[in-house]
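User: Assemble these into one structure.

Assistant: Restating your components, then the assembled model:
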Amino acid sequence: MLLRYILRRLMIMIPTLLVTSMLIFAIMEMPPGNYFDTYAAEMAAQGERADLRQLEFLKKEYGFDQPPIIRYARWIGGFLHGDFGYSFEYQMAVKDVVGDRLYLTMLVSFCTIIFTWAIAFPIGIYSATHQYSWGDYGLTFIGLLGIAIPHFLLALVFIYFANVWFGLSIGGLMDPQYFNQPMSWDKFVSILQHLWIPVIIIGAGGTGSMIRSVRANLLDELQKQYYTTARAKGLHPRKALLKYPLRMALNFFVSDIGSILPSIVSGAELTAIVLSLQTTGPLLVRALQTQDMYLAGSFLMFLALLTVIGVLISDIALAFLDPRIRLQGGSVK
Amino acid sequence: MNVMPPAGPLGSGPLPHYVSNAPFDPKAAEKLSPAQERIYLASQWQLMWIKFKRHRLALVSGAFLLALYLMILVCEVLAPYENQSRHTDFIRAPPQSLHIFDNGTLRSPFVYGYVYKLNLENLKREYTVDTNQVHPIRFFCSGDSYRFWGLFTADFHLVCPAKDGQMFLLGTDRLGRDMLSRIIYGARISLTVGLIGIFISFGLGILLGGLAGYYGGTFDMLTQRAIEIVHSLPHIPIWLALASVIPASWSPILVYFAITIILGLMDWTGLARSVRSKLLALREEDYVLAAQLMGARTPRIVGRHLIPGFMSHLIASATITIPKMILGETALSFLGLGLRPPITSWGVMLNEAQNINVVALYPWLMIPVVPVILVILAFNFFGDGLRDAADPYH
């Protein structure tokens, strides 16, 4: 039963990704002209003559003399065997430009989710079990602040106070000398030292909404009769809480990842730009500005893939936890 | 008073027939007290208002937002300076503080003037407060001339700096423009982007969700998949991609509308989903069958009988998504991909604060963060209150 559910979810994923890729390609195609025209114009503006023959060759090579459909087919076909196109700006394969950055984005997102869980879960439980206490009000308000303050503003404020109070410069995801170096213990330690700041910043919004939903769901469960019965029979309050209502609330907890993951990825991109992290964010914006379409398109596609797979994992985890979902075979929402 | 006939001996005549001549009142048995009447006979909107009023924080937030939206109607009058007026002698001047005591004597509000010196060692502009220069603030005065909504020229302001004096309560920016005035002008753009965006997503959501919910079948399936796809995409990168498509040659007003459309295009899924699920539940109701039997067409049933039933709920959930749009605009403009300089919005102003060195030296450039956060918090509280008030089972 579980296997069939997973298969079904995988089958839904394929058309989703296909449509997404078409959407992204269409957006990339939308601006008039292409990178080569922009490049030639830029060279002309600087008073230099671009090598027209080379440009013509490149244009042909990348199918810019053919209709978009064929270019799309080649682009998406390349994905299947790990060829993500060519970055005009860097004159390298997209795969090499992206390099470590994609893993770092994944690392940041993953750590953010763990952080969100680790913080939101106990706070949510505390808020629900101490409803309308001062602690509840205070924590709920802090959570709301987390939702209200946009990631990049939080990042700015963080940088400012780190600079003013501690004289620290907190940009970057590792010390500069480690970038583009192979993984080593020192590099790993350096990443860990830098990682916590973006994780807190990106996680703030998700944590806020997570606290709210844990609190609301747990409150619903605490009002149900089975909980009253358990308490009436003399079960220790903590055991009664942990054994039944918490397990029910856990389901929402897992399924919520599906809805906060896109916003975590979004936030990671923005925060990365402000903090100049060596992840995909800064590169993506640069690629969009210069119309480096394969680089930008492949980036967007990676991000979409990241979210879709994340949602898939949370759905499967939910199916493990909650028999009602895998038996009905329906999706979570 | 009708006179009763004298009762005869038992069984001798018909029983007396009593008729009260008090005016007939069919509801006499269930008389409502005035307090009950107010609630039982209230319309749906009145009920919402009664419930909404109990939510103090939401009420305060609503009033705050209302004041802001009224403010953007007359921001030219409220701002002490004109939006783009530059003060080249006061570039990146720090905020001046408002005083009412000068050497221990009370006087009308004023600011002390600045003495400007260029530090030749690090080329930093240094402003020192000069307590000899007193610039009293004028009220209801004429100052910078402006074009009111671009319609006619005027120079009336609520407050102005002293003649030949300055008043930069929140400092100035890179071009020596008053931050306070620009924040007031920026509200006009930042606050309306979200509103227009929400209209677009509202329209799309009701249309697609309504059709999917009422017709079901293939169309429903397609809409569902579309919603899932849009919902699973990270919004900000897609917004960035769409915004980078806007040609640089477009006029500011076109860019403004393009940005609102982009914001609206990604946001309709939540509304469409809730419209659809509500419709699926409501279309089985008897009154829909009755309307169908009477020959009403589908658009009439959906538009006239179904949607109004949960309109209040929809408005409440739309309110909660406005902050997302405001944040989206701020983020895009902050990165330089959204609105562009001749337009003043909070995001455009924050664009100057992108560089950490600038922020460390001139922290007041970050001040537009404050209105952004306040507005978003207010919308969150207001939306929460509206949602609670719109929920009939709460």
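Chain A is about 75% helix and 0% strand.
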